[in-house]
Protein: ATP-grasp domain-containing protein
Organism: Chitinophaga chungangae
Amino acid sequence: MILCITHSQDTYTIDLVQQQLQQFGHTAFRFNSDEFGSRYRLRYRLTPSGPQYQLQCGSQVIDARDITGVWYRKLWALQVPPSLDPAYVPAFLKEYNTSLHIFLDALDVPWINRIDLDHAVGGNKLLQLSAAQASGMRVPQTLFSNHAEDAIRFYDDHQGDVVVKLHGALSKTMEGRGDFFPTTRLRKEDVPMLESLSACPMILQEYIPKDRELRIVYIDGDFYTGSLRAPEHTDWRMASTTLIQWEAFQLPRHIEDKIDEMMRLLGLQFGAIDMILQPDGEYVFLEVNPQGEWGMLEKYLGFPIAATIAEKLVNRINNE
């Protein structure tokens, strides 16, 4: 059985991957991580033959020993039962999160991606930039600071050609829903606002001229790339999805090789990578999201991303 970790609001991509896994002859169980404290029962026993970890949903009991692989798509915050006394919420969250990770840590099987590496990379954009640079890719000059003086000096050093963004994105779906702070080009009149950085550290980067924006889906050595003509906005996710026209794009082999090297350095089998193709033809790496969205590329460009995720995971299971 293959465990597919996601959340209760997930649609489309989770269904596609589960269907593909079943076509490869593997049972796929959808685990909505946000419902762990309300929909599932957990059971841990230390037996004479060793530890036993079980997850139960309705009448179905899943033993950790029966799980052969994991597709880790998303891990959402736990839903708190509305009837729970607020005084007990901290204990509820602490104990359920501990129980969840005890269960997940017991799964010594192939993962795409391993949860610890996924979180380590997704939570550290400076690590991503360092790995990309070490792999031979060009990256933007970057400052991450809570100090206004540093930010103003960075702005002046780049003659005002600077963008600003949060290190950790707020929520954003492939349809463009949800709270969001986009990558924004810093204007001269915004510079005095940098005094407020002490309340919220932010990333400043040199502005990179664009011909195309690229969303590259990497799956264990395979690539699927969609491109957009550079929009008016700094961040393509600000535009109405009805106006976004994705086009298939073929990366040069030397860029694919550098991305592959970076992903192997980071220990990831999957990632959604954002790059810029400049008007002069140079490629610039921006970031890799280990849980990045790709459904729009499968939907609008017909890329077999779900099938490739399923195939790569099954291959890893068979090669164990």
